[in-house]
Each structure stands twice: as C-alpha cells, then as structure tokens.
Amino acid sequence: MKITVDFEECLKDSPRFRATIEEVEGDVCELESKLDKLVKLCIGMIDAGKAYNAANKQFVNGIRELAQQSTKDEVIESSLTKFAESLQEMINYHTILFDQAQRSIKTQLQTFVKDDLRKFKEAKKQFDKVSEEKEAALIKNAQAPRNKQHEVEEATNILTATRKCFRHIVLDYVLQINVLQSKRRSEILKSMLSFMYAHLTFFHQGYDLFSELQPLMKQLGGQLDQLVVDAAKEKRDMEQKHSTIQQKDFSNDDTKLEYNVDADNGIAMEGYLFKRASNAFKTWNRRWFSIQNNQLVYQKKFKDNPTVVVEDLRLCTVKHCEDIERRFCFEVVSPTKSCMMQADSEKLRQAWIKAVQNSIATAFRDKGDDGEKLDRKSSTSTGSLDSGGEPKERSLKGESALQKVLAIPGNACCCDCGQPDPRWASINLGITLCIQCSGIHRSLGVHFSKVRSLTLDTWEPELLKLMCELGNKVINQIYEARREELGARKPQPGDPRHEVEAYIKAKYVDRRFIRRPSDEELRNKVISLSKQEKRLSSSSEHLPPRPPPPTPKLRPGSNVSGQSAAAGGAEARRDSLFCPDELDSLFSYFDTSSKLRSMKSADSGIQNSADGSREMLANTPSNNSLADADAAESPPMPMPMPATLPPPSPCKEMVFYEPKEYSPGLQLYWASCARSLPDMAEALAHGAEVNWVNTDEEKRTPLIMAVQGGSLVTCEFLLQNAANVNQQDAQGRGPLHHATMLGHTGQVCLFLKRGANQNAADIDEKTPLTIAVEAANADIVTLLRLAKMNEEMREAEGPYSQSGQYNTNSPTEMQYRKCMQEFISLQLDESE
C-alpha cells in the first residue's frame, strides 16, 4: 500500500513534511470541489431524466390515443399499440437507470464527501491549532531569561506538553490523510463502475427489446413500400379525376340530380331544401333532405338523427304550390299532415317531385327486389323493428355469435381464401369471411352478398340459426363443385387483392365453378324433396299431440275468469308468449295516449279502435280455455269466439303433381317445404328465382311453402335472399295469411318484422286478423292487434310530437319491438 505521508517524517515536523501537508491539503480541497460539482451534475442529470421520462410518457400516451382513434385500420392500430408498449418498456428501463445513478453517484459520493472529508477537515483544524500552540511554546521557551529560573521552568514544561500533544495530533492527522487517500480511490471507482454497469444493463435490455420488435418492423417496412406505391397510384387517380371534374360544365349543376332506387347506401335522392315550419310564424329553414327506404327524412347536421317527415311515401301525394309568395315550392301531403318545401330552382323542384313520384311507384311495384328494401326497413304497420338504437333482449353480439358460427365445420377459415379466424360473414350465403374478402363481397352488392361483422354487429337468434344451418363447407360444395375440374386456383392468404377479387366474382357473380345438373338429376332431386316433405308431414302427424298452454292470466278487471289458469299455471312454462306485465305496460301506455289523442285528434275512430283492441285482447281465451271462458259469467265480448277450437284451415294438402318441366325454381319450391337449406342454396346458385310461382299449385311461392314446412329459419333464408313477403297465391293469400292459418306464431312475427301487410285480404275478404280470431289463436291475435295498435299510435301521435313526426324511441315502440323479438326467440327455442 502506498503511504502518502510518512509517519516518521511527521514527527520531525520538517519542511518536507510541511510541504507534503500543504500539497495534500490542496489536493483534498480540489477533490472536494470536484466531487461537489459531480454530485450537482448528477442531480441535474437525474432531474432532466425524470423530465424526459415524463415527456416521453406523454408522447407514448399520444401514440396510444392515435391507435385508439385508428380502430378501423387494424394494421395501424396493432402496430401503434405494439410500438407504444415497447417505448413504455424503454421508459421503465430509463427509470431504472436513473435510480441506479441516484444510488451510485449521488448518494455514495455525497456520503464520502460528508463523512470522510468532514473528518479530514476536523483533523486539519486540530493540527493547525496545535501547530500554532507549539510555535508559541517554542518562541516563549527561547525568550525565557537565564536569570529567571521559574520562567525557564514554566516555558520548558509548556513546551514539553505542547510537543507531546503535537505528536498525538500530527500522527492522527497523517493517519486520516493516508486513509482518505486510500478510500477516495475505491469510493470513486466503486460508484462509477456501478453507474457504468447500470448503463450496460440498460442497453442490453433495449437491444433485447428491439430484437424482438425487429421482425414486425421489417414486415411493416415491406407493407409500407406497397402502401407508398398504392398512395402514389391513388394520388394519380385522384389528380386525374380532379382534372376531369374540373373540366366539366357546372353551369347547369342543378340538373345532375337523379333518382336511384338501387343506391348502395339506400338513399335514392338527397339535397338541400327549404322547409316551412308548422309553428305559428311559418318560418323557413334550410335542411338536408333525402329519400331513403321509402321515407322522406331531413337533417340539420350530419351527426343528428334523421327526422322523418313522411313515414311511408305510398300514402302520400306530391303537388306544385303556386299560391304562395315564394318560388319553386312544392308540397308533400300525407293522410295526417302536409309538408311545404322550396327548391333552389325550377329544375330542382321538378327533380324532387319526380323523385317522390318514382319512390311512390317503386314502393308499390311487386318485384323481387322489394324483399331487400323491406329487409332494410319496417312497414308502417309494424314500426321500426330493426332500429339499431333499440337493444334486443335475445340478440347475440361479439364473442357469443362468433363462437357459435365458427363451430360449424369449415367456418374456422375464410370461405374464399382460407384465412384462419374470420371475423365477418355473408348472411344470405351463410358463410364466414376474412376482412379482405368481406370488402370484396360488399362491393358485389347486396343482391349477391350481405356482409355483417361477427364481433361488432348484433345478431338476432333467427339469423344466427340460419348461419349455423349452412356454413363454408356446404356452400363451397355448391359454388366450387367444378373448380378442380376446371383447374382454377383458389386464393391463399396474402394473395394480391385483385386476384382474390377476380376469383370471388367468378365464383358468385359468374358462377363459373357450379356443376349444372342434368334434366334427369334435377327431376330426381325434385321428386326426392317432395317425398322428403311427405315424410316430414307424416312423421309430424304420428307425433303425440303437444299439450296446449294453460289459460292466460288476464289483467285485473277482465271479464273472463282466470281461476283455472291460476290452478295450472304453476307447472307451465308460460301462460302465453306475452307475459301479463308486458301487456299491462303496453295497454296502459295505449290508454294514456288514447286520451291524449281524443283531445287532439279529430278522428274519434282511432281512440275507439285502440280501446276495442285492448278489450278484445283481454277477453281472448287461449286454445284450452275457450269452454271455461264461455261458462264464466261475463258480459258479451266485443268479438264473438267459438266455444271449441276449430282445426286450423291451412292450404290444401301438398300433393306432388308431375310438372311440365323441371327447373331450379321447382327445386327451391320443394326444398323450402322440406326445410332443406343446402338444397335451397343449391337451387338459388343454379339460377332459381326466389319468388318463383308454381302455376300448377295455386301460384304458391317458395316462401309460402316454407310456411307450410313450419321452419322459421327457412323463411328467414328466403327473406334474406330478397323474397317478397307480400306476394299472394291464387287465393289472394300471402305468407302472413298462411302462417296465421297454420298457427305458426314465430313466422307471423317474422313476417310482421319484415314488413308484411297485415291489412291484405284474400279472395274471401279475410285478413290475417280475421283468420286468427276465427281460429281463436290468442297469441297471433295479440300480435296482429298490437301491430295494428302500434300503427294507429304512430299515425295519431305523429302530428303532435315536437319534431313533427312519431318518436321511434317511445315506450310503446320499444315495448312492441321487445315483444316481437321475444316471440321469435321463443319459437326458435321450442320449435326449431
């Protein structure tokens, strides 16, 4: 060990020792200032690091917020989320590094300065003091006179004591100097080495972290190159489109409006119009009007919910208005109100009048594409049953629907490209799709494929049941039957979009890979399906009769006795598909609204209709309690009911007649009755018309045959493929008539939900409600009466609401929708 100051030399107190001491003291003083400076710099570094971490955290939070805002772009969302997580880890590593600097530099060196250097300074003070005392004793001893013995002795004693004390102090001081010089080396190196190891760990952790992130960054780099190319191409296309549009003549811009009933977004026409308010001041306001889903609506702002001006354009007329001061005005008149509007020019006025007239004509047109429009909206009689804002009690959303659909064989991969874990579906085809193929399907149009998300959208039970009846395996056996024979290559995950798009169009639009059956094969298929239908009918006839439900629990104050119902209702599943609480809530609201209508409406018949509906429903017995109801002492009911339940009067028994020719439409006809969804899908793929009419059997359609088969899911499949819910047979009966005659409650509810006209009469002038009353079917009577009352409420309350039309989120409408969905769910649970 190297000794800075020699112990022997310190006892001599030689000039060499004094010089060494001065050098050491100067060195220690400089060391103290350097260490103080280093500690302060370390504190500043740590504070700056904490500020950097705080700013970095805010930056990472900004990345997370950007990722959340980009939920529609899965690539950006997942990449930004991963980057934010990695940067957060780096912030954590930085925090550990600054903590280590706090411990190794600041704390350790501060301790060395405060403890060891403080001891050195105290030892130096004692040394300086005893050195001065020794110097004074030497001077006094030298000045003592020879002839004064006592002064000499005193000076000698003081000098001896001072020298003795000096030796102890100087030895301690030299020891402190040597220990300090030795310790400074270890303390400084120890703290700095610890700090450098902290840096080593920090950079190792960062290297490992970004090594794991490197494959993703390389993948994104490859995608980025393609995105840059695509962006440049899109830019060129937009510049070309911009140049083309800029060269057009916009002098007659108001003539560009066209009425398009088949628009992808369902909006046939839209534009700005001035609307005259119905208040006392008759103010005019500019609003954005549109014709969509057989309705005339307007908005003030884009985010506002559309305000319905006319609920059903079929009930309206449109005319010019020349008797007011303003120019270019026209009026839309409905049975309950009128709306005055003003266009910006005469050409625009003519365009809007023509659009309204075309919309009215389109609504009445009896074609197959009406099924799609009715699927997007509800009719006037049933209200908006498919409103997105209404929560549905028995609907499924997210993982529940996803798990059920993916459990079907073949559905775990995309039907068209094989991408695993699909999250989209085509509801009219019954297949699952990846996000790229779903976008291509959506571009085909809803007449080919209706796309819905398995995780984001709400799934009604009947639609989910439909998906589970088909699946990718079944559909591919139909649409890819000749793919291998033709040598066509099926796309794989990661293939270019244009290749996948070409394949999907060839598969579903051109139907290039379908195996066309021969006449003999088609004949055998039709005969087999007709026999299958007979076997289903005969097997259902031999089944033991289903016990009827117990007597409905009537509302308090009803005229019909409910004691027998109370006796047997404890063991029953439910007295009726409508629970008494739901009816009480609905009827109480109808009562209150009826009183309001009686004060505001000039037509008193509306009130009487609502009251009569309620009384009839309250007094309608169920199938097994008609005799009890007749035996009860009660006043005569407003509508007489038979004492015993007559058998239902369905269409004539299905008999297979040898047709003149066999066609895919005939296959669809018998497959619908046989409840065979794969055969129905095959018939549609071979070109069957969904509204095909069998002239040999009273002009029945596949949808009517699906009603005969008794399957609600079969009806849903045809409706999703644009079947006309109001098409009638030779007896003037539509699907709603047949479902009512057969007592198929779930199908009745489904047809009302899809816009069936409950006021249509057959050739015997019987409506579905008349048939249900004659058959004493309490549930169907309840359904049809509630639909009728809901329609009357909408017509009556519309003119008196604040916005000028009926509020679709009213308690009545919400209760009605809930009951309708409950009907369908219960029927699926029990009959399917």
From TrEMBL:
Instruction: Could you list this entry's UniProt keywords, alphabetically sorted.
Output: ANK repeat, Cell membrane, Coiled coil, Endosome, GTPase activation, Membrane, Metal-binding, Repeat, Zinc, Zinc-finger
Membrane topology per record: Peripheral membrane protein
Annotated segments matching region Disordered? 367-396, 524-572, 598-635
- Locate the compositionally biased regions of type Basic and acidic residues: 367-378
Q: Which Pfam families match?
A: Ank_2, ArfGap, BAR_3, PH
- Extract the InterPro entries matched here: ACAP1/2/3-like, AH/BAR_dom_sf, Ankyrin_rpt, Ankyrin_rpt-contain_sf, ARFGAP/RecO, ArfGAP_dom, ArfGAP_dom_sf, BAR_dom
Q: How is its activity regulated?
A: GAP activity stimulated by phosphatidylinositol 4,5-bisphosphate (PIP2) and phosphatidic acid.
| GO CC term (a single one) | plasma membrane
Mark the ANK repeats by their residue spans.
Answer: 698-730, 731-763
Highest taxon of source: Eukaryota
Which positions fall inside the PH domain? Answer: 266-361
Compartments, as annotated in UniProt: Cell membrane; Endosome membrane
Bias type Low complexity, positions: 379-388, 554-570
User: Domain Arf-GAP: where?
Assistant: 399-521
**What is a GO molecular function of this protein?**
GTPase activator activity
Its biological function? GTPase-activating protein for the ADP ribosylation factor family.
Q: What is known of its domains?
A: The BAR domain mediates homodimerization, it can neither bind membrane nor impart curvature, but instead requires the neighboring PH domain to achieve these functions. PH domain binds phospholipids including phosphatidic acid, phosphatidylinositol 3-phosphate, phosphatidylinositol 3,5-bisphosphate (PIP2) and phosphatidylinositol 3,4,5-trisphosphate (PIP3). May mediate protein binding to PIP2 or PIP3 containing membranes.
Name of this protein: Arf-GAP with coiled-coil, ANK repeat and PH domain-containing protein
Native organism taxonomy: Eukaryota, Metazoa, Chordata, Craniata, Vertebrata
